[in-house]
Amino acid sequence: MKKLINTNILPLLIVTLMFSTACVSQNSDQSTRNELKTEVLTSEAQSNLTPQEILEGLKAGNERYINNNLTPTDYQAQVKATAVGQHPEAIILSCVDSRVPVEQVFDKGVGDIFVARVAGNFVNEDILGSAEFATAVAGSKVVVVMGHKSCGAVKAAIDGVEMGNITAMLDKIEPAVEMTANYSGDRSTSNDDYVTEVVNNNVVNTISEMRENSPVIAELERNGDVVIAGAFYDLETGKVTFLD
Q1: Can you give the residue ranges of every domain in the chain?
Q2: What's the predicted TM-score (pTM) here?
Q3: Helix (H, G, I), strand (E, B), or coil: what is residue 56?
């Protein structure tokens, strides 16, 4: 004989099941939140870091990015924590290319790094002023100038493109094209190796101009307070290679 379920207790069973499910869900959400990174760089933490440690941290962050293993982060917690001040460890000068998500590339959160962006990652008065603020005022100890594979601005400079304000912008990259005049292969934008050579020379030239045109940063570097590094970002792999 089949046992009949007492229909009077069905509502109670349903409510109990719903409550239990909600508790499990809330506990799971709380556990996830507890695993998220919430801390941000403080003045003390920034002060204790050496330029070499910062560079190693950038390299390690890029490895996590390549391996699709970015640090789980509570960005809203970091937003609130940095609202009263910032103490970034580095400033990255990058191209504006949308395929180069700088913070993600180095697995950094809110308040970790300054990012300055301009097509072709060159320096002018405004970029230099921004870098001086980041280092001399805000205490960042590393400056990274990062070019990237297949840079459209570099290709336009190679091709001698003239168009509106782009013309004057490309003049800033032209020295890198001239630096690569002795390249033995095909010196055209169809040659990826040649374009990469110009991109890297552009990074080298940018660093040289930074040292020449910013006595503030040059002195910080001479004193060992700041390290300036060049880098190349591979669009196909996400890997950052630091230049010698």
Answers
A1: 37-242
A2: 0.86
A3: helix
